[in-house]
């Protein structure tokens, strides 16, 4: 039995903040167990969020500058986290950092997550593993989703399907004993964009969406998007959202509340289609979207599965926990990308290691 303590860093497309999870893993050939020791979300400033949102428009030089800046910011937050929790750095085997996705175009052979690993390693004096997706893309895969291996290794006693409601909604499941996973549809990203325009950070409990009316024309066009007819492996990025999804929202002159209500219905319908088509009976749902009570009601109404929402620590930090696990597998020289999920030619060990000098 090998025991490793890893810090998992997760910064998603929703830009809710940096999730840091301090996880102890106990791993052998038969069992993979974890203990979540400490965890915290560090919120981002408005200035920081605006910089990241504009990253796709930056020149190459300015993007590299932002890469180093985010690395410095992550390092500072890690140091604060270690100090606040009085964590002995000598116990930490590595930091596993997802980074901030700026471009995700696997069909063009690349995916880009910034937040310089060397910068984090230097300023924390800890080894850092990052860039988990690139090797899989080089192997012909989507580079996503990477979470399924953690779903089935760490949480398989809780459910048979794993739904994450972050910037996008994605699901992990087993088909004929083989792990399959893919992005279903957008989730928090388009919803947050609308409420941000209203001067709010999020739609608490989905109350604004609940007060709106579902527009059948918009709903029909959203459901007819080509992505939903394509087979897995497949994944979504912000580029698709801006080019294919957002123009349909803007095509109709609707109130913000009606936009929210229609998008919620779209999300719930797409998720229900997947749950029903795969015959999933028990689903573990995690991520920020689980706090949208209206969305969860609609998913429950439209699907026959039992939807389980774990405690807040697991729900909010599952992705950070799993990226810590991907880091542990990297250190153990074990594949951490599932080829049947991503469509790669073979399983690979994703990640780049930046060693520190203590």
Would you kindly provide a written description of the structure presented here, covering whatever features stand out?
Helix content is 41%, strand content 23%. With 358 residues, the protein is of the alpha/beta class. The protein has two domains: 2-142 and 317-354, ATPase, nucleotide binding domain (Nucleotidyltransferase, domain 5); 159-309, Nucleotidyltransferase, domain 5. Helix 2 (60-84) packs parallel to helix 3 (117-124) and helix 6 runs antiparallel to helix 10. The longest helix is centred in the N-terminal third of the chain and has 25 residues, at 60-84. It starts with a strand and ends with a strand. The model has no long low-confidence stretch (mean pLDDT 95).
Question: Topology, please?
Answer:
Layout: E1 2-10, E2 18-27, E3 32-42, H1 46-53, H2 60-84, E4 92-97, E5 100-105, E6 110-114, H3 117-124, E7 128-130, H4 134-138, H5 148-154, E8 161-165, E9 168-175, E10 178-186, H6 188-197, H7 207-211, H8 216-223, H9 238-251, H10 256-277, E11 282-286, H11 293-302, E12 306-308, H12 312-331, H13 339-342, E13 352-354
Parallel strand pairs: 1-4, 4-7, 8-11, 11-12
Antiparallel strand pairs: 1-2, 2-3, 5-6, 7-13, 8-9, 9-10
Helix pairs in contact: 2-3, 5-12, 6-10, 8-10, 10-11
